[in-house]
Amino acid sequence: MTPLAPDPASLRGLRLFSGLDAAALAEIVRSAHTRRIEKGTTIFSQGDRATLCHALIDGRVKIVQTGADGQQLVVRYIGAGEMFGTAAVFSGGIYPADALAMVDCVGVHWTAATMGELMERYPRIALNALDIVGRRLQEVQTRLRELSTERVERRVAHALLRLVRQAGRRVGNGVEIDFPLSRQDIAEMTGTTLHTVSRILSGWEGQGIVEGGRQQVTIRQPHALVAIAEDLPKPEKLEVAQKPEK
Amino acid sequence: MTPLAPDPASLRGLRLFSGLDAAALAEIVRSAHTRRIEKGTTIFSQGDRATLCHALIDGRVKIVQTGADGQQLVVRYIGAGEMFGTAAVFSGGIYPADALAMVDCVGVHWTAATMGELMERYPRIALNALDIVGRRLQEVQTRLRELSTERVERRVAHALLRLVRQAGRRVGNGVEIDFPLSRQDIAEMTGTTLHTVSRILSGWEGQGIVEGGRQQVTIRQPHALVAIAEDLPKPEKLEVAQKPEK
DNA sequence: CGTTCCGTTTGCGCGGGCGCAAAGAGACGC
DNA sequence: GCGTCTCTTTGCGCCCGCGCAAACGGAACG
């Protein structure tokens, strides 16, 4: 295995380069820099000049925004095949958040200048980037609406479902999030405190919906979580007589 | 005046087309469709197929996202010279929100196919679009953090300051928001209720910071609002003796 | 000029979830 | 094996801000 040599196959998988011909891909591969990134590394920091476009070949990266008085927001988790820090390069030139390697990663990057040239030469890349950034915008807007209008419990359910979708791994008794995820992290994704998250997960664990661990969550009944997220009228598991609905 | 004929001058002002030569601009103008939009008109609806890229020449448009059970979020207000609905065209093809004309407007639009061709031909347009969408992404992420970590009062202050920046008009006794803006609208921008917004504004009015009216807000002391937004230790106006700081 | 309607203000009571505090429980190093 | 450190759980009390309800007031319309 040659993790430090740019691998055309893994780059071909990036949405940013979909629809390009072999010649273009070859050029892209030539101009890419690949490197291992150790767990815990800060890949870039909020406020830095955005000089590099990053993509993740393997691992998991957390994007965190910090406010003036230290409050933190988990903007998103990046998985294999996703770009990060690229939007900043082309709008403002300052990274708006920190990027942290949650596990050992393999990353690849291009300089801003190189990527700019590539986009000028292959407009398709710019269009792909627009697609990707546009989707993230929609996703963040949806989170904004959830945060505005939903209670904490529903927001946590939504957040977990989103994580399952993008980082879920089937295991014997359900689906687990495949990277270390603390209660604090979940709190920073949903705009609440780790205490409240802990209470909610404990509650769900009592109902057999999830199973918690240290920096670990396994979802045993995804459908029950969906019901909570969508605020459906509880499936009523093995309960005593129905309580009169108010 | 010829409001219904595409006006090269006003299109030249659009950030989307900055950096293009005269020939390109001419082509862009030729392919544009201009129209008047009456106050109250729904320009597009959430869920519609995104077939048009819009820009606003004059007026004010509200972008509103609606949740499953009717909860609404004001995503942003569009002013003259801004694009809207364009990100959706290139990512997913479905408008993620409604666009409403708050006042009589003059708008211009291109079909998705036309804009796609323009971007292929003039990559600069795609890069400009990436810039614009990236900045909006950053702005929305910042709002997300504010909503996660700040109290209602600070959020309302931030929202008003943002409005002043993009739609403020100097008047005798301060700066006013130059389009009809209800308490409900402010509530939907900040994730609270119109009641709470009304209470907060009443409080500020008592301190002479703002002046309210029907669908109207005037900021008399922007600096005081900044102090609230940044959570600074109150300038202490004409008060009795200092209360002991806790 | 009166009526209607819509946006706004204000009071009151409650409750979700935060703040604080302390204990429990794995993981890790020596 | 033991101590330490970090993450997690849980209890308790309080307060911000919501829900509900009612009244107010200006604008628009006939």
Structural features, described:
Chain A has 246 residues and is of the alpha+beta class. The first copy, chain A, has helices at residues 8-12, 22-31, 86-90, 112-121, 123-149, 152-167, 183-190, 194-206, 222-229, and strands at 33-37, 42-44, 52-58, 61-66, 72-78, 83-84, 98-101, 105-111, 168-171, 174-177, 210-213, 216-219. Chain A has a four-stranded antiparallel beta sheet. In chain A, α4 (112-121) packs across α5 (123-149) and α7 crosses α8 (194-206). The longest helix of chain A has 27 residues, at 123-149. The N and C termini of chain A lie far apart (62 Å). Mean pLDDT of chain A is 90; it is low at 235-246. At the A-B interface, α3, α4 and α5 of A face α3, α4 and α5 of B. Chain A binds a DNA duplex (30 and 30 nucleotides) through residues 151-152, 182-184, 192-196, 198-199, 201-202, 212-215.
Secondary-structure blueprint of this entry?
The structure is a homodimer of 246-residue chains.
Chain A: H1 8-12, H2 22-31, E1 33-37, E2 42-44, E3 52-58, E4 61-66, E5 72-78, E6 83-84, H3 86-90, E7 98-101, E8 105-111, H4 112-121, H5 123-149, H6 152-167, E9 168-171, E10 174-177, H7 183-190, H8 194-206, E11 210-213, E12 216-219, H9 222-229
Antiparallel strand pairs in A: 1-8, 2-7, 3-6, 3-8, 4-5, 4-7, 9-10, 10-12, 11-12
Chain A binds a DNA duplex (30 and 30 nucleotides) through residues 151-152, 182-184, 192-196, 198-199, 201-202, 212-215.
Question: How would you concisely characterize the structure shown here?
Answer:
Two copies of one chain form a homodimer. Chain A is of the alpha+beta class and 246 residues long.
